[in-house]
Design brief:
Elements (H helix, E strand, L loop, with lengths): L2 E5 L8 H4 L8 H14 L4 E6 L29 E4 L10 H7 L4 E7 L1 H14 L3 E10 L3 E2 L5 E2 L1 H12 L5 E3 L1 H8 L1
Parallel strand pairs: 1-2, 1-4, 2-3, 4-5, 5-8
Antiparallel strand pairs: 6-7
Helix pairs in contact: 4-5
C-alpha cells in the first residue's frame, strides 16, 4: 500500500507575482487532484501538509486567506493536515512517527514548490528510509533571480530539481506513469 503526501497546495501560490512572476506547469494542482482521487478510490492513506509561514508578508501566513488548502485537493473526512513553518514536512510535525507507526514506507509526493518544500521533503523522506515516488507533473515552481541579478526560468528550475532528486532520493514519474503501475 502506498501513502500520499500533498505538500503545500495552498491558495497563496496563486499570487504568482509574489513568488517570482512566471510559473511552470499550470496544471500541477489538477494533476494532484487526479492523484488524490486515485488514492481515495483505493482507500489508501492521504496526508496534507500546510505551510504556515512566519514571514509577515507571505501569502501563506496563517492569518491570510492564501494559507488555505486549494479546493482541488481539499481534505475530506479524517484525512490529516499537518502544519509546518519550515521547508520539510517532517520537521515540527508528527509525520515520520505516524508513517512508521502505520508501516507506511512507500510514499508518493506532489505539491508546491518543486525546488523548495517538495525537494526538501523528498530528500528528508529518503534519508529517513522511506521509498519515495515524486509525481513530476503534479509539482511546479516559479522563476527565481539570484543575488547577482541572474534570472532563472521556472521550467529550468523544475527540471534541475527533479534531476537532482531522481534515482538518489526518489523515483520520478508522471501521473500517467504512476497510473500504469497500478494496473
Amino acid at each position: 500500500m502506498r501513502t500520499l503526501l500533498l505538500i503545500d497546495i495552498q491558495q497563496g501560490f496563486d499570487d504568482i507575482a509574489y513568488w517570482g512572476g512566471n510559473r511552470n506547469n499550470p496544471d500541477a494542482e489538477t494533476k494532484a487532484g487526479e492523484l488524490l482521487a486515485l488514492f481515495r478510490e483505493r482507500d489508501w492513506p492521504v496526508y496534507h501538509i500546510q505551510h504556515c509561514s512566519t514571514n509577515s508578508e507571505s501569502p501563506l501566513r496563517p492569518d491570510f486567506k492564501g494559507n488555505a488548502i486549494q479546493e482541488v485537493v481539499k481534505p475530506i473526512g479524517s484525512e490529516p493536515v499537518y502544519t509546518k513553518t519550515v521547508n520539510s514536512a517532517f520537521i515540527g510535525t508528527p509525520l515520520e512517527e505516524v508513517l512508521n507507526a502505520n508501516a507506511q514506507k512507500q510514499v508518493v509526493m506532489a505539491g508546491l514548490t518543486t525546488d523548495h518544500c517538495v525537494s526538501t521533503s523528498v530528500r528528508m523522506a529518503a534519508n529517513l528510509g522511506f521509498e519515495v515516488t515524486l509525481i513530476e507533473d503534479a509539482t511546479a515552481t516559479f522563476d527565481k533571480t539570484d543575488r547577482n541579478g541572474k534570472h532563472y526560468d521556472a521550467q529550468l528550475l523544475h527540471e534541475t530539481a527533479l534531476a537532482s532528486l531522481d534515482g538518489e532520493f526518489a523515483q520520478i514519474q508522471t501521473l500517467d506513469q504512476f497510473k500504469s503501475t497500478l494496473a
